[in-house]
Amino acid sequence: MALSASLGFPRMGARRELKRAIEAYWGKSISREALFAQTADLRKTRWLLQRDSGVDLIPSNDFSLYDHVLDTAVMVGAIPARFGWTGGDVDLDTYFAMARGGQVPAMEMTKWFDTNYHYIVPEFTSDQAFQLTSTKPLDEFREAQALGIQTVPVILGPITFLLLGKTKGADFNPLDLLPKLLPVYETLLQQLAEAGAKWVQLDEPCLALDRTEEELAIYQEVYTRLVNHTVLSISLTTYFAGLGNHLTAALNLPVSALHLDLVRAPEQVEQLLSLPQWPQDKYLSLGVIDGRNVWKNDLNYSLALLQRVAAWGAASDRIIVSPSCSLLHVPWDLDTEKALDAEVKDWLAFAKQKLAEMEILKTAVNDGVENVQTALDDNRAAVERRRTSTRIHNRLVNERLAGLTEDAYTRTSPFAARKSVQQARLQLKPFPTTTIGSFPQTKEVRKARADFRSGAQTKEQYEAFLRSKTEECVRLQESLGLDVLVHGEFERTDMVEYFGEQMDGFIFTKNGWVQSYGTRCVKPPIIYGDVSRPESMTVTWSSYAQSLSKRPMKGMLTGPVTILQWSFVRDDQPRETTCRQIALAIRDEVVDLEAAGIPIIQIDEPALREGLPLHRGEWEAYLKWAVDCFKLAASGVQDETQIHTHMCYAEFNDIMPAIQSMDADVISIETSRSDMELLDAFQQFSYQNDIGPGVYDIHSPRVPTVDEMVFLLEKTVDRLDPSQLWVNPDCGLKTRNEEETVKALEAMVEAANIARARYGQPLNA
Ligand SMILES: CN1c2c(nc(N)[nH]c2=O)NC[C@@H]1CNc1ccc(C(=O)N[C@@H](CCC(=O)N[C@@H](CCC(=O)N[C@@H](CCC(=O)O)C(=O)O)C(=O)O)C(=O)O)cc1
Ligand SMILES: N[C@@H](CCS)C(=O)O
Ligand SMILES: [Zn+2]
Q1: Domain boundaries in the chain?
Q2: Which of 235, 193, 319, 207 is nearest to 62 (CA)?
């Protein structure tokens, strides 16, 4: 019999119960015991839902109070010395301090592959020791067992865990730590087997990235060792990319099951079918349901694919029907969307609906198509309704794109010439200070918006409130002595959702939350059709803010690549085409802001790096269109208008030529958690344009000291010319509270003044 596996389920709960529980614990309004009780309820709900949907291989330990990579680091005792851990169980508050900072800085956080999920980066020293410190996988397995549910513990595989980490102090290959790490995995597997587990899912997404022969040999060695050591059946899970040339090497690993992402890399099917025979006794987990998007699966297509693979191997009993990856990256349940446009809703499936899709496919494989004929026919009709809908295409948008010429992608003059006219206009001091855009989205702000949405506040009341917050924000920035001001982004729920809400071709959910990091969630808009901008989106707020101050106001926009990357994107045309459509809409907004007298416009592209394909061979093509889209958005203005961009959580080393070719006048980047290491790339590349390296970590509630920031600024002047430098936090301030924000910005301005006194040359007019 074919089986089904869900690989992982959203953690937050249908109503973001996890977020509320953890934030209540942080706010000291519930106890640790209450937090444990509430999270146990949530785990139970998830397991029951999956059991009742017919899933055979139900995951456990896919749940986390913050992040599963952090859980793994804690589990193996990789706890950086600064957290003062002396052995034994890791206290919950130490766990949260590792993620969020406390007395000492938090660990770094970065993107989980090409998703909008962020993980905490493990830190390894060359003398790193490991020990099993946590019983979390075992506890969750037993918890489910007590409910009568046999689960598959999900563990981050040892090789991916090490490859995702960062070495501290001496430079060494983290894989050198495997001999010390593997005994911990062996003990864990043994404990799970003793508790009654039969399967364990070891996630090794790094196996699907470009890997050397030497690394593939390490995979072979490690998995041979683990398999020999355990009675558990190991399911090795790859996702987000195809295995490419090392599919055979992966199939030769002595594990019981190998999972393939057939949505991202459908060509793996042909690769498989060209093999002489079914790989030994292996189960193949075929990821045919998109775990990264919200479109209803074309079940007839997927079934044909499953049947081809089964027929090839005469092995329907060796197939596991699964999503392409964990369902962590899609919202919980479409059924809660009562207000969603009915036509588009009919095209969608969230996590719960994807479980039902898996069940239909599994039943068709096991019991014959006739047992699910109605479901398959209904699905075929829905897929056809979407394909032929008149709401998808907009002739004007496509004609405009087709008519673009080269000059739409280039500023009038080169950077040096622009810099001097901009300086003549802006008269900025050396080391100009600014922020990344958002100011605290306090409870008060969110409540006002919720009241407006529920009808408890009128539009006039809500807008008056937003104006008062904006004015307060402008006055605060003036009094702090910031040089380039922002309006604070109080009117925005989210930097992507806000723009999507105002463009055609998008729809919105009420509850389609997806975890971004820790308790923070995003509600990605859904792009279902051609994108256009009916009217200006930000001009009113930026103009209002500029009218309040003589200092330059920075208009704030989200860039096309980021809007694309953080939305659920239509899958019926290339992503590039959708991105170019968004770029045109943003270009119109940039031009409107300029016409309204806004002298500086920031086009945020924090997701540009995240969108890089996981295989290097595909980078060039992606970077070409991604940079084109940014330039299309940015190049409609005169030389005297200063274009900024902002990026966070990214390694820039390998995309420097692309960043330079974006040709933004100023780029602000996240660097503080990595001690300005990222600037090395800018230095090595002799980056020409201006840079604002983030001088403090906004994700931590900890207020940075002046000295710390001066120290970081000194590192920047070691690497870059002082006349290139701006001073800013490393991302927007929306998650911070007002008190933290004021104190941190006060210190930042003081640090900038110190840098100015030490290194500042007047900027050339
Ligand atoms: C910069 N980042 C972003 C990413 N992706 C995005 N799409 N947007 C980003 O900004 N990726 C990389 C990083 C990730 N960083 C963050 C930072 C902060 C958040 C965040 O704060 N998320 C909020 C939700 C934001 C939102 O949409 N809020 C709405 C709804 C608020 C709400 O929950 N309302 C309550 C009622 C409120 C009341 O009555 O008090 C409710 O519905 O129950 C809004 O502002 O209106 C979060 O809380 O998780 C995300 C990613
Ligand atoms: N302008 C946005 C960028 C976040 S990446 C903000 O300040 O929140
Ligand atoms: Zn940012």
Answers
A1: 3-61+133-387, 409-440+482-759
A2: 235
